Records
---
Amino acid sequence: MIRQFIKHQDTWEADLNNLTPKHKLARRQVIQHYIVLKDVFDRKYAPLSVEQIKNWHRTLMKEIIPNSGDYRKDGCMAGMKIFPEPTLVSEMMDSLVKQYNLFDRNHFSPYAVAAWLSHAFVSIHPFSDGNGRLSRLLGNYVMFSYGFPYPTPISNVKRAYMKALRLADRDYSNGRDTSHLAFIFLENSNMVFSNYLANKNLTQEFK
């Protein structure tokens, strides 16, 4: 699907008209996720900004939800967790971005920073939908900025990922313990490298 998009990227939206609504949505989600992931990689060394996060969300959720890229105007909750009131979102996002850009990278591992940013963002839950997807993309933004060449998948360990989020939520008042989430980033990035090194064609690349 992605190869087809790359070949016909100027007409991919028109091509969706030939699909059923269900398949159209699925393909749109995959392609728009790829577009954002590529942009995240291209901007990995640029300072993070609120406007950039909004732009990524706008692309990620285009024609999937109304008002993509705009902060939510309603309260929301997931399970027993109640997210901040909409009136607080803008200020909290400004603070989050400022704090991230002030991080001293020499004193924190990429896994710790990726876990912190990902969880802090999803805890604010600034948009009406797509927060989880974008939080994981932000985690990859951090990993890329530290020089990791490949995306770090998280969705393939969904149960462990959700548990790590709950554990971080539990210690929120004490500054949030995101060590479990950091370990998931570590474990999955190692898995990506292991899969690459296990590639039977790898020896051909170095000849």
---
Amino acid sequence: MTLSRLLASAAAGAILFAGAAQAEPITFSGTVAGTTDYVFRGISQTDEDPAIQAGITVSHESGFFVGAWGSNVDDDFIPGSNVELDLLAGYSNEVGDLAYSFIGTWYTYPGQDDGIEANYFELGFTPSYTIDKVKLTGQVWWSPEYAGTAGGNSWYFNGGAALAATDDISLYANVGYSTFEELPDYWDWQVGVAYTWESLTFDVKYTDTNEKFVGPSGRVISDERVVGTVTFAF
């Protein structure tokens, strides 16, 4: 997964690095994906419409990395913009079965109208621990001004697990909690299955929240839904 928005999905957490040849001092890796709905922490960013997404990361053998990730979003969410572009930098390391990353992500919406302040920064810590065929995952994210000035100070906590049922099939589930200074707090959760063939990953998940947020079109964008995604990693 890209290390920005895709880190919010337990299934996508490491896809972006899947194609990297770790023997080289500097490696390039990336993903291109198509999804039936861009859902971030239980909320549709495309007003329940499909999305095309792509990301690239440059990694150094020391563990430091930089990258970028983009997706189309609903053009009514951020006036003047229908694109999300995330810029990220961080550090990853492994100690035995424990892996962890520190990530700083700058979420931007190019073309947004004058006076709109939707861009924001988020700092994350994402540990994982592997026990045989089970990977336990965690996420802690903090932003001083979530979604620009809309959410104020915010925290996001997420915990989950993934089971490698076979060499090609994994099952996963995770639960997250968002807390804001200026917006309602809420829970999100998802369960899914992912199948990998060569450089392609086919993912189907069920996602839901305990809140009913309404988008600009008047539709609820945080209710239960099934999302399908195909990702090509290189």
---
Amino acid sequence: MFIECQDQDSLKMVALIFVTIDNKVINKLFGRNFAIMTQSNQLKRITLTAVLLALCVIGANVKIMGSVAFDSAPAFLGAVMLGPWFGATLGIFGHLVSAGLAGFPLTLPIHLIIGVAMGACMFVFGLVRQWLGKDTLKGVLCADVLGYAINVPIELVLLYPLMKQAVWAFFVPLTIATILNLIVCEVIYAALPHRVKDAPFLMPQK
């Protein structure tokens, strides 16, 4: 019942975020390619982003081994399918919305740092896949390694001034969570049919 209530709240929040963003702002954020899309394709892209954002929040409630959850897998998937800017949006808002619904258990400043790190992680992840190929082994390996590096060691270094030595207690859980979320993302993307991957509203294949 509690999770159902959280999911309903998250869907309302997701809808509010995307309904209130002006179309010109979206075009500036996500680039000229997005701006020249048909209105139908723009709507499909925003709808998929909203669905993935809701899945980030729902995934935060699917926990294994205590704090390990599947909250970033939809953001990684969005970065591959929709591009780096959409991935960054999913990384930032996905973490902040899910953390906000939980009452910011690590305090707001820490969650803001994590949210920014998640956004940077998804942006780099999506950019590498855009440059090296979404389906190439080189693109997958480079993006996954950089995604892990930003999401675990670099993020922990950024959190060290606020958390001191306590930050290292998160190394193992974060490592497990990041690897599992990357595996889920890659398995789902590999399983998608080519007609879905080549849809005109998605980031073009390399």
